[in-house]
Every structure is written in structure tokens, then in C-alpha cells.
Design brief:
6-stranded antiparallel sheet; 4 helices; about 140 residues; alpha+beta
Length: about 140
Amino acid sequence: MPAWASLDAQARRPASRRLMPGGNGGTAAPTYANGRGGTSLESDFLARGAGCRLEYRGSFRAGVITYVEGALRIDFRHAHGGRCCRFFIELPDEAAWESATRTPLVRRDDIVDFVAETVRREEAGSWRYEIEPTRIRYD
């Protein structure tokens, strides 16, 4: 069964990485449920210093979002969510991160934060998102 199919299991995950929309209809920077602001200082540094960006292939129904940072390119599959959510992006879990992305595990949170917030800003401005261990879910 795919990771996104088990909403019951996902509901039991800790809320420390959940994001909530801003107070003005989702256009403000989101805040983590644990109080941390939208993107970390490390993510901001990566985005400014390394020229990070996203490339999109496919359609809203299914495709690939590519994180680009210099010569580094990481592909993340995405799909229309159906009943569980509007849209989701698949992520390698922590155990598979380094082999799947060729980047150190210590960078995972910053890259995932950058992808989640950039997709929300560029493609889904009024939606909120939640970062889970194996996906980013947009509602």
C-alpha cells in the first residue's frame, strides 16, 4: 500500500513539522505548529546563495518536480491527491534519502522545506501544506 493511502497512520504522526496557513487567506508566510517560522535561515541561505529553483514537468494530475541547486538535481514525483488531499509530493524517507538524492541527510529538512514552500507560493497560493515523513501534502 502506498504511504499516502494510509491516512490513519499519517494522522498519528507528530505535529512538529505541520504547517498552518497565514492569517490573511494563506498569503502570509506559514508558521510551523511548533512556532518556527515558514522557512529556516538555512533554507533562505540555500535559496539565495546557491540559486535554488524548481522545475515542473507533467500536469497537475501527475508529474515530476525537480529541485535544482547548481549541478545538483533531485526529482520528486507528484500527483493529484483524490480523497486524501488535493495534491501531494512523494519524498524518500530518511533511511533512503542519501541513496535516492545523493545529498547528506542533514540537508533533507532544508531541501524539503524549500520545495514545500516554493510549490505553495508558485502553484498553490491559498492551500496549506503538511510535511510528513514520506510526502508533502497540500489541502
